[in-house]
Amino acid sequence: MFANPFKLKERGILGMNNRNINFIGKYNNRKNFPLVDNKLKTKQIAQKHNIAVPELLGFIEYQVQINNFKHYIKNENGFVIKPAQGSGGKGILVITKTVGNKFIKPNGVELGYSDIKRHISNILSGLYSLGGKNDIAVFEKLVDFDDAFNGFSYEGVPDVRVIVYRGYPALAMMRLSTSNSDGKANLHQGAVGVGIDISTGKALNAVQFGDPIKIHPDTKKDLKELKIPYWKDILYLAAKCYEMTDMGYLGADIVIDKHLGPLVLELNARPGLAIQIANDLGALNRFNEIDKVAGKHLTVEEKVNYSSSNF
Amino acid sequence: MKSKNQILLFSIVLILITLVLMFYKVKYLNFPLFADDTTNIWNIQAKITFEPKENESAIISLALPSKQSKLLILNEESTSADYGYSTNKLHGVKKAIWSKREVKDKKEQVLYYSIDVIKDNYYKTKIPKIKQENENVEVSKPIIQAANSLLNNIYPKSADSITFTSLLIKEFNKKEPSQAANMIQNNFMKTQKEKRDTLIKLIKRMKYKARTVGVLYLKDKQRNVNLTPMLEVYKDGKWYLYDIDKGLVGNSSNIFIWQRGTQFLLDAEGVNNSSVKFSVIKNIVPARSAALMKDTKNQSALLDFSLFTLPNASQNTFKLLLLVPLGALVVVFMRVIVGLKTSGTFMPILLSMAFIETHLVPGILMFILVVTMGLFVRSYLSHLNLLLVARISSVLIVVVAIMAFVAILSQKLGLSYATSITFFPIIILSWTIERMSILWEEEGAKEVFIQGSGSLTVSILAYFAMTNSFLSFITFNFPEVLLAVLGVIILLGRYSGYRLSELYRFKSMVD
């Protein structure tokens, strides 16, 4: 029923309490949290730092502006509406296609104008934000994801989560949406997590709902075949987010656009622990090694090189 | 690492402060650790009876007991129908004086004076200086000779006033006393009182200081008793109490000294046949009230600033309020050590407070019923496309209606307990329903079930912690326990080990 905690420790597995106290509490300054928690702010600062992000179509702050949304999406076929301060993928609405007055979700469900307006209204009321405070609805261009992932993801944008520890990429996984996860890439909602080798960008092993799997449950594709393009660029992009936010324990979610290459979708100041299961590897081992060399490498390139040659 | 040590130290200090305060209160203020601890309060009543003389003014005075170590006098009370009452101090002895100018009633008059006495091992007082006057009695020569031979016999065997008195008392209580002792006994020791007075005379012949006392034994259900004559002997600044039949009294905690010295116990002018009789009754009271009563005499600053100084209504509020930290401790434990998912951090505490109002089983049934019905209503409301605040308010009104309906229904069915449901925090329930329904839409029924049952589990555990009679007794009587709870919560806040749920979650990684 239960694992021996000493064995877990031996494998260097990071637990929730340990993460909260010794990593988030220690390396992530509270005052930097809004940068990460507010997706609009993240986007704005990322553009300042020349970090590639999906294009911002616009945002709505007040209920009276809700009808303006048509203005933001008129030239777009697909788009994403998300709460600026949402967490855990809550409140993200993905529209892949617009047909006349109908908006089609990745799973084929059609939505009307009123459905979209209601969703925006809910976002503004703070339904999805931490602590229920008023929020901003952010409109983003839909990422046209790279063909490398054809067959690996079901009805959604697959993304790469890189854990950046003190500026060094430490762990990575690919998150593939499934029919369970409704086009979203959150593991607790049923997305598949594939551990990625930091040095090669190739798949290590995969899990869904915490259990190891070999093939994608919907597309039946062998997950071992997954190899992520632009891998070095992705690591570089992730590591740069550390410079941008000054967060020592950071999760960077990166998507790969067919035309634009890797884009930072969002950042996370409290990345979860499931990445360890996907990698079948304890995070503490990596963190301890990084602690030994932290301060020796000054530039982003040096840090990325260290990670890709050592992990 | 440094902050970790600081926190450890801080928590330990908090816990130690609690233990010290509790120890002090239990040991020195006699606070009980358990609710059903009881203590005895002795009610001693002096009943004075007399017959008034016609058209004459009456003054009756009774010698009152002075303070006594280890026994605390609580309430002094006199019931004296229509007599004037005052107290007065004369030669170090307090006296109660009843007076009346003209006693018309010819019937026997009764006056009462009563005190409550409680044992307090830590109460110390000085024995008052009371002079023992010598009365010279004409004594025949053979008796003096007998006394001299008796004293000459005992004196060399003794070392001081203590041993001398012990030997003397022993001599008179032998089965076959010496001839001299026998002679004195037959002439001067016909009553216990005479025996005592003669003993004192003999002791005084050796230039030792001695005086008379009248005592009462603290034994239940004594009625119409007289003071038992005893004597005290002085040595090195202390007075030692002697039973005239048994010798030195080692443990005087059962003996209450009412009268000291030669002053009359009862003085009565203008009346006939006056007499005073005593009764002793044991009252059993909760140890806490006894401790508090004692404190009004001792005035410990610790209790002076305690919750007991609050009015009753606020005391009751605090009784409940002081339990909240216990609930919080349960929540912290379940989160940090076990890792149970709940919806909302402190919702479980509020739920368990609601359960305290409604009792556990009806509360849980009601919770499940209201939330389930609420979820149905909420799913209908979601079709109406309302703004969030309006929607939650609608849910709130529906929740009130559901609760009213359930209360009326249970009243009709004769389930009276369900009517107390109205105290359920409605807002909390509405929010719960709202959050649960969002959760349902976003993550599915499974997550609703996990978080709902997590909240329910934690609130049930918190309910048991908060209704435990021992714990609630301790938190109210020893509010300093909150410091220890704080210390434990701070310690838990630095626990960086694995949660129980993680041992399950990461199990596949070590197999």
UniProtKB/TrEMBL annotation, chain A:
Residues 43-295 form the ATP-grasp domain. GO terms for biological process: SOS response. One of its GO terms (cellular component) is cytoplasm. InterPro entries: ATP-grasp (IPR011761), RimK-rel_E_lig (IPR011758), RimK-rel_E_lig_ATP-grasp (IPR039523). The keyword Repeat does not apply. Keywords: ATP-binding, Ligase, Nucleotide-binding. Coiled coil: none annotated. It comes from the Bacteria. GO terms for molecular function: ATP binding; metal ion binding; ribosomal S6-glutamic acid ligase activity. Gene3D superfamilies: ATP-grasp fold, B domain (3.30.470.20). Pfam families: ATPgrasp_ST (PF14397). The keyword ATP-binding applies. PANTHER family: BETA-CITRYLGLUTAMATE SYNTHASE B-RELATED, RIBOSOMAL PROTEIN S6 MODIFICATION PROTEIN. NCBIfam families: rimK_rel_E_lig. This is Alpha-L-glutamate ligase-like protein. It comes from Malaciobacter molluscorum LMG 25693.
TrEMBL record, chain B:
The keyword Transmembrane helix applies. Pfam families: 7TM_transglut, Transglut_i_TM. The chain crosses the membrane at residues 6-24, 320-340, 360-381, 388-409, 415-433, 454-475, 481-498. It comes from the Bacteria. Residues 265-509 form the 7 transmembrane helices usually fused to an inactive transglutaminase domain. Keywords: Membrane, Transmembrane, Transmembrane helix. Residues 24-186 form the Inactive transglutaminase fused to 7 transmembrane helices domain. This is 7TM_transglutaminase domain-containing protein.
